[in-house]
Design brief:
alpha+beta, Chalcone isomerase, seven-stranded antiparallel sheet, two-stranded antiparallel sheet, 9 strands, 41% helix, globular
Length: 187
Amino acid sequence: MQKMMLLLAALVLTASSSLRAGTLNGVTLPDTAQAGSTPLILNGMGLRTKYMVKVYVAGLYLPQKSSDANMILKADTPKRMVMHFVRGISKSQFTDGFNEGFEKNSPAAAMSLKPDMDRFFSTLDAVKEGDEVIFTYVPGTGTTVTIKGQDKLTIPGEAFAKMLFSVWLGSKPPNESLKTGLLGSLI
């Protein structure tokens, strides 16, 4: 009887662990998401740090798993980035971080997409610990910015999505371990 109970407990733990794809720094993200009519799976999770301070846990969702950042950026397929903040940041810290990421990873696109960037920056606001900001790209629709559960803006076109996702997956991510995790090395 005791062996049966242990086996049952092991099965329950195994089943419940498959219901969630990943936990990092105390943040658990679901194993699936939806982008338009396309189901997405959690590709990986990473922790953004700045000066050794933990800022957010990010999760990258794709139609199928991939560890090739260039292929992910080039593919005109649905994708989603979830930023779950583990500390609060101001609006200026938020916009400065993205501006730096755009300039480091997509300087030409940042110049040509300035009106889209301005609209994007105008929707960003201060966030608190526990808040989520989600970016979902759907081909033919564009990139939707969702802040604290509310859709704020959709920027049409593939070019903005490539520039946005290059912040994390480009050659100069905020920190290398974040990119490595998003590409599936920490799950």
